[in-house]
Amino acid sequence: MRRIATVAIAIAAVLAACGVGTSFPDEVIAAEATWLCDLPRFAYDDASAIEAELDQILTQAAVPRSTYDEFKSQLDERPELRARVAASFAEICREA
């Protein structure tokens, strides 16, 4: 796992240096990583509670929902975004 995180960080650094993937700020990436790290830790009574938890994470990160939704719509098509999320996920979940 550590090797994958190291590779993801290196890829993200190279892509950032090339100006790729800079359309979304680090706060959006960190919000997604936090969401991925926190989601499995909780049990929810209904789907609305899941959305409420995500909204809370976005609010704490000062990320508008519209920006997050745009980010999510591009995530599948942009490997550099996935690499940034993977690197942030490794960092955030290690600290949690």
Could you characterize the architecture of this molecule?
- Helix 2 packs antiparallel against helix 3 and helix 2 (26-38) crosses helix 5 (79-95).
- By secondary structure, the protein is an all-alpha fold.
- The longest helix is centred in the C-terminal third of the chain and has 17 residues, at 79-95.
- 22% of the residues are buried.
- The chain has one domain (2-95).
- The chain has helices at 2-17, 26-38, 47-60, 65-75, 79-95.
- It is built from five helices and no strands.
Features:
96 residues; mainly alpha; disordered N terminus
Summarize the topology.
Layout: H1 2-17, H2 26-38, H3 47-60, H4 65-75, H5 79-95
The mean pLDDT is 81
Which structural category do the helix and sheet elements fall into? mainly alpha
Biggest pleated-sheet summary: none
Shape: globular
Helix content: over 70%
Number of strands: 0
